[in-house]
């Protein structure tokens, strides 16, 4: 009887032990599988976005997204929804940077369409610089606006991103050799008046009494950037359909 009892009592325990061992083995195999696949997943994660940015994020999409975020931000500011406005201004800032980066990457590239003589960088630079101008003219008046004063930091960062990014993009254009630079002359010569518009808007705000200290600082810095851009552009593209000159 003792032997039978021992056998019966050990049977379930032995069975449970086997199940536990089997379960642990399964966990171990799963962990091993994760260790094998994790480096691949990490490689995909770390390298994937870089490839994605280079291939799928176009200046057109970024311009559309930046314009949408700008419009939403203006609406939120007008209605006093400052946290939501800040979120949209941050999106606008990121998309503006993406648009300028994508357009800059096309500067100097040959036409992609065999039936066209138009380099892709010309349209990209023109449209993205138009976005930068639109952002500048929309944000500058808000620094002294009763609603705008509640979101000065995101306003300032968005403004500086647009103006600095445009300055860098146009510097890349102006660094082209004379032959490639000639493709940009007509279109960029037509944009020269926008700098006076922006500087006038900034001067009007800086001459007023309703700016915060932070707002005045951001506008002063933006004014310096736009003045620099205007001076460089005037040397190369000043005048209607002027032949490019070296700086």
What does this structure look like?
By secondary structure, the protein is an all-alpha fold. It is built from 9 helices and no strands. The protein has helices spanning 2-55, 59-78, 82-106, 120-139, 152-174, 178-181, 185-189, 193-206, 213-237. The radius of gyration is 29 Å and the shape is globular. The termini are far apart. The relative contact order is 0.09. Mean pLDDT is 81; it is low at 1-56 and 240-247.
TL;DR of this structure?
Helix content is 77%, strand content 0%.
Features of the shown structure:
single chain; 247 residues; mainly alpha; 2 domains; globular; disordered N terminus
Walk me through the topology:
Elements (H helix, E strand, L loop, with lengths): L1 H54 L3 H20 L3 H25 L13 H20 L12 H23 L3 H4 L3 H5 L3 H14 L6 H25 L10
Helix pairs in contact: 2-3, 2-4, 3-4, 3-5, 4-5, 5-9, 8-9
Total number of strands = 0
Q: What's the end-to-end separation, in Å?
A: 107 Å
**Helix content range of the residues, please?**
over 70%
pLDDT < 50 stretches: 1-56, 240-247
């Amino acid at each position: 009887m003792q032997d039978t009892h021992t056998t019966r009592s050990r049977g379930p325990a032995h069975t449970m032990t086997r199940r536990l061992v089997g379960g642990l083995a399964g966990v171990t195999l799963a962990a091993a599988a994760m260790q094998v696949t994790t480096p691949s997943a990490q490689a995909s994660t770390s390298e994937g976005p870089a490839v994605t940015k280079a291939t799928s994020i176009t200046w057109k999409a970024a311009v559309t997204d930046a314009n949408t975020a700008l419009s939403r931000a203006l609406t939120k500011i007008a209605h006093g929804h400052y946290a939501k406005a800040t979120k949209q201004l941050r999106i606008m800032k990121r998309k503006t940077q993406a648009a300028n980066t994508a357009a800059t990457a096309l500067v100097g590239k040959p036409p992609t369409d065999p039936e066209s003589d138009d380099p892709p960088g010309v349209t990209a630079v023109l449209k993205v610089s138009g976005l930068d101008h639109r952002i500048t003219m929309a944000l500058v008046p808000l620094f002294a606006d009763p609603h705008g004063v509640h979101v000065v930091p995101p306003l300032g960062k968005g403004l500086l991103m647009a103006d600095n990014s445009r300055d860098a993009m146009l510097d890349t254009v102006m660094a082209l050799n004379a032959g490639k630079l000639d493709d940009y002359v007509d279109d960029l010569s037509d944009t020269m008046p926008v700098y006076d518009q922006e500087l006038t808007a900034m001067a009007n705000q800086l001459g007023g009494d309703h700016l915060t200290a932070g707002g005045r600082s951001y506008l002063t810095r933006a004014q310096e950037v736009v003045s620099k851009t205007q001076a460089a552009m005037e040397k190369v593209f000043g005048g209607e359909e002027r032949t490019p000159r070296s700086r």
